[in-house]
């Protein structure tokens, strides 16, 4: 029962975030805004305990969420055989580019004297 209460809290905050995002035309997606609203609510034991029970349940069954992805890959094996190499190249390159941009952004604001050491 505690897990269902936690799921209700998660869905309520997601819905509230979606409502606020659409009502005020905010640049944040509704679920992200809902998580931001959930963060201070987790200070209350009633919310925290029920959300923790729901999170434990979802994490215990996390592998089930990968079944639709696996079925989708299996149904499109011909496309994967045709474009798999290009997809792998794009994934690897975009990962490296993302890492390089992140490193540059973290390195850039440091004062010059810190960079010399």
Report on the architecture of this protein.
By secondary structure, the chain is an all-alpha fold. The chain has six helices and no strands.
Order of helices and strands: HHHHHH
Outline the biggest β-sheet: none
Average pLDDT metric: 91
Number of β-strand runs: 0
Sum this structure up briefly.
The protein is mainly alpha-helical.
Feature tags:
mainly alpha, 117 residues, single chain, extended
Give me the secondary-structure topology.
Blueprint: H1 2-23, H2 30-41, H3 45-60, H4 67-75, H5 77-107, H6 112-116
Helix pairs in contact: 1-2, 1-3
């Amino acid at each position: 029962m505690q897990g269902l209460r936690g799921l209700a809290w998660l869905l309520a905050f997601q819905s509230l975030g979606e409502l606020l995002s659409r009502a005020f035309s905010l640049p944040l997606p509704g679920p992200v805004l809902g998580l931001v609203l959930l963060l201070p609510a987790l200070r209350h034991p009633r919310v925290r305990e029920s959300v923790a029970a729901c999170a434990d349940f979802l994490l215990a069954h996390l592998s089930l969420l990968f079944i639709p992805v696996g079925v989708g890959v299996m149904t499109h094996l011909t496309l994967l055989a045709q474009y798999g190499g290009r997809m792998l190249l794009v994934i690897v390159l975009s990962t490296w580019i993302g890492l390089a941009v992140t490193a540059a952004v973290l390195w850039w604001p440091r004062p010059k004297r810190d960079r010399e050491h």
